[in-house]
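Re: weekly structure request thread

Next one in the queue (212 aa):
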Amino acid sequence: MLIDINKCIGCNYCTYACQAVNNLQDEMAYNVVSVETTVSGDEFYLSRPCMHCDEPPCVHVCPVGATYKRGDGIITMDYDLCIGCRYCQVACPYDVRVFNWRDHIDETSPRVPDFGIPEVEPRARGVMEKCTFCEHRIDKGLERGLMPGVDAVATPACVVACPTGARVFGDLNNEDSSISQILQDTPNPIRLREDLSTHPKVYYVPPTSAKA
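Done, posted below.
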């Protein structure tokens, strides 16, 4: 995924669409939007989903294998295995994992229907949850011959909902994909906390003032 900070207007549509599709209550968010400041004092919005790291600390610390990396690099969860120890939450340097404190079995996200309808089953109380790049959309789309990042129904909800096109999704392993081409044309794209050698799969176009 690529997020252009200069295009982000802080509308939180990405967060709301994620909450609707994943049937999350307001107190739970897989995607966090915060206001940050450059060294020159300019404010900007930073949208933070799971980074889907190549070397994910959350996977390494999970004692039961509930958090794991798929063959395509997506970091996902087996909620039936999760014991709620929250080791992954402590290990994640990006603070993008959330603990489910209560059952939402009979509840619907307040973001429904304005930002979408639930597409996955509610999770039970006592498990850790996270952004999965809407893996259910990707998998179903690929089965139908669709292309994630191009076809909306096969693309993460946050990307589809963004009104300014600040988010781009696609196959980073395919040099001909749109996201790979954009990254090649983007001077000095950044990733968060590269000093930790987690090798995040979410890239950012830095704020213009930060590039000066």
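The chain has a mean pLDDT of 94. Residues 13-21 form the longest helix (9 residues).
Next request, please.
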